[in-house]
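User: Structure tokens for both sequences below?

Assistant:
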Amino acid sequence: MKKVKDFMNPKVIYFKPEDSIFEVAKVFSEFDISGAPVVKDDKVIGVISESDIVKFMSLKLGKKPTAPVLSLSLLVFSFIKDNVELKAEVSRISKTKIGDIMSKDIVSIPSEASMLEAACVMEKRDINRLPVIDGEKLVGIIARADLIKALIE
């Protein structure tokens, strides 16, 4: 039986709750990822995703994004252009910590779980990635792409 531990990525990109939205957006863009766990004192306390950031910004800026997943920089620049009020709001938003907007409903999976279990959890909860946790320790991350990899190996 194929196990999560055999397909997970043990090199997890994660954030701390005091990291800013823009720090997270930069890492998302740099590593071409759309979400990551938020960790405090070696324990997963939440998950931050592009959707969380876009939703928060659209609420704060009073705009609705036209696609569910947008490059944050394009979103911001399309909103602010020459608008002084929006520039000020973006400056305030940039100070927002992800601990304030992250999803606190943590869905995780143990490394000994089967890939089928991981697929079922992702499908049922409509999520793209699962932190892999043994005990309370973050040991990896498993994404939908890893499920596909498990199918062909």
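Moving on to the next sequence.
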Amino acid sequence: MIKKRPLVSLVLISYNQTAYIEQAINSVLGQTYQEPLEIILSDDCSSDNTFDIIKRVVSDYEGPHKIILNKNEINLGLIGHVNKAFEMVNGEIVVFAAGDDIMLPNRVTDIAEIFRSKDKVTTVSMDFQCINESGDLIETRNPYKEGFFSLKNYMDNKRMPLNGCTRAYHKDVFCKFGPLSLDCGVEDATLIFRALLLGESYHTKKLGAKYRKLNNSLSNNISFEHMEGKINQRIKDSKSALEMNITNVEIVNYLESNKQITFEKHIIIKDHTSLDYSLFYFIKNVLFNMDFKLFEKVNMFKSSIKSKLKK
């Protein structure tokens, strides 16, 4: 989709992250990207001194990139903040970062090169490392092969990267579809689906970030209402894509006819997350994995539940 060297917008969003924000900002300012880069540091009306730290860290910045500071007048929540961020960007490529993660120096460079060199790419993801609250390495997440992923892969439940911590998007995922509904809960899965309606996703094996795994992260606390909102957003976006003649009516019909099944699956996953977070991955990756026969899934599920209840 992109051949020339467009402006890249790097957006870091924060909220009450005093313990991590300075390291996150320094990792943003330390990007090796040599082309024009717009850096937007946006705080969602933190009640602590997160924004004061941001202003202090960037006050001495003398690098080549444009810095834009923003503090929302009221707390907009994750989705509202993402919508606001997209409205502020001027770049064609939008790289997202969180106020508690650490970007690796080459992340923007590697992402921009993929967008420029590969046709039809509308979103890019990278491998990443997981760290704890103290910044100690927990694991390196590299389960996916390098390559392209399509809407068909997504609809067929093919195992594919859906993480948001190293994600970048073409700005069209916002411009062509408009703001996200505030009840859609999570931004990454929703924006990825939009990107797949418009083109393809590409995953690179290069490391892009250190993702901080925290028990109180939003991804661990998605409500039933947000799950339903995410499904409704996906249906809405598929209808918009149909109006733009970039998808077909079969996609819309499939999403609408499977809405209740999809919602119930999410309820089951959420229900057992509170029992043991590891069980979430069992259900997600085994129970709903087409590689396992039905009787294998049932037996493994029963064994897992029994073992958890005995503890």
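User: Anything stand out in the second?

Assistant: The CA atoms of residues 125 and 166 lie 5 Å apart.
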